[in-house]
Amino acid sequence: MENKTMVFFMVLTLGFQTCFGSEQHYTSGLGDPGMKGDGLRVAFEAWNFCNEVGEEAPEMGSPRAADCFDFSSSILKHRVTEADNKLGVGNPFLGLSPQALNNTDLYAAEKELYLASLCEVKDTSNPWQFWMVMLKNGNYDTMSGLCPENGKKAAPFKPGRFPCFGDGCMNQPLLYHQPTGFVGKDKMRGGFNGTYDLGSEIGKGLDGISFFEVVWEKNVGGKWVFKHKLKTTKKYPWLMLYLRADATKGFSGGYHYDTRGMMKLLPESPNFKVRVTLDVKKGGGPQSQFYLIDIGSCWKNNGSPCDGDVLTDVTRYSEMIINPETAAWCNPKNLINCPPFHIDPNDRKIYRNDTANFPYSAYHYYCAPGNAQHLEKPVSLCDPYSNPQAQELVQLLPHPIWAKYGYPTKQGQGWVGDPKTWELDVGGLSSRLYFYQDPGTTPAKRIWTSIDMGTEIYVSIKDEVAEWTLSDFDVLLTSPPTDQRSDHIHNVTPSL
């Protein structure tokens, strides 16, 4: 009996090696691993500077929309109507709370949940909803008092620090939807596009106006390719466009509302990788902080998960910028822009004043949360207005120190003319990055609720255009998720 058991075990082992070779076995955290499903789930969200809506654009409804359909026998069965996409404040829908009916910010958050309910796919582990196209306007009317300061209501202040052409600069865009359909026998195509310039017509040309577009297309049986375009102008010099895989419940990175998304299993450092194919066609100019990968989550300074209290929650971001025109603001003469220390792949801690060993050119910029109480000086505080709560930001640049994690090691890799499929050990790298935490507290579980790619054209000097395509997007868990705290994966009630 013992010999038969041993033979059976050997057969199982050989079978496992045949299936997976020398590679590690992965579990995808996404509902649509690698963007391969013939049916599609994609949604759209637009935000103003502080991740709110503020005011809807005329006749556009709330800036949330979705294109979700099932595919069977070459027939697309759409789940979301154009009437659903045009819903705006004052128009009820199933599940809308009374307090949200005439509140533009709450209405948009609840409209996302409604669209998600129409798109939701039941799954053996967790249900999932859609990829999220995120568009954000960087204009901030400082005299409006609309954006809180580190979660606290802020008084108006004189302009100068942020772009704004005057009253109305924080407006939402005109949004147009091209529902997915067949172009030819086997190819499907759909998209969202529009402009922030109210009253303009994009069909008459783009000279002098802002523009955004995301087009998705796929041959039946193939994979989806998402084509992005973003154009800035003098009136709208700071625009952001990302394709996001967000958590299917709870807070996605940067929000204090319950959100929906594509990540049915949440990745936790160090146990995950990200695979994606990126082809940058146009870079967007010198101010384009193009993120090969941007990960976001939320935990408090004492390590506890966020609970919707915007005074104590902190959004945490890590971003790899691949635009070769982006310089390292962190350098020996500007330690204020560097994290207090760097941890190398061998777990060696290198302090920023160690000028012989600290990899300054591996960091574009570090800033600390404005509500932290025990910061090591010198310190640069993150912008207190652009998120509903305080935030912390670690921005990276290509550098040989990241080679072990599969990231770019020199400027120009992955940029225009260098399309590539990346397999990034995002979990391994993010487990070693510095994030602030109060002394003597239990280290936070680094559970990431958003993973996205795209660009932030940061106050362009002239009209700029960025174009890129994404495909093969997947989040690969290298070990089963741990017992993640419920606040990260279940509905929570935000404090508003």
TrEMBL record:
Q: Which keywords does this Swiss-Prot/TrEMBL entry list? A: Signal
Q: Where is the signal peptide?
A: 1-21
Q: Which InterPro entries match?
A: DUF7705
Q: Name one Pfam family in it.
A: DUF7705
Indicate the segments forming the DUF7705 domain, all copies.
28-477
Report the transmembrane regions from the record: none
Q: What protein does this entry describe?
A: DUF7705 domain-containing protein
- Give the organism, scientific name: Papaver nudicaule
